[in-house]
Design brief:
The chain is of the alpha+beta class. It is built from one helix and seven strands, in the order βββββββα. The protein has one domain. It is flat, with a radius of gyration of 14 Å.
Length: 92
């Protein structure tokens, strides 16, 4: 399959998308939120960095590593939902 690259660069939004076969790399940067998703045949990685929530999820053949740092109870609840959603997607 051909390699696909998409790049969007504006004042408030930057996005890089690379897809090569089953490998995928997405990097989204905004003033308040940074998201990075990397997926290849073996490993999967998800990073979310906001003002109140930091989430790092990495799935390797050895297992899943989840690191969450959230400020306050409301943001912890939101982070828990995000982790649950991402882990469900990683299992596919």
């Amino acid at each position: 399959m051909a390699k696909k690259k998409i790049k969007i660069d504006t004042d408030k939004f930057d996005m890089d998308l690379e897809k090569d076969g089953t490998s995928l790399k997405v990097d989204i940067d905004t003033p308040n939120v940074d998201i990075k998703i990397v997926r290849d045949e073996i490993n999967k990685e998800f990073d979310l960095d906001t003002k109140n929530i930091d989430i790092h999820i990495e799935k390797t053949p050895e297992g899943v590593e989840v690191k969450v740092d959230a400020k306050g109870g409301f943001f912890k609840l939101i982070a828990k939902r995000i982790v649950k959603f991402v882990l469900k997607r990683f299992s596919k």
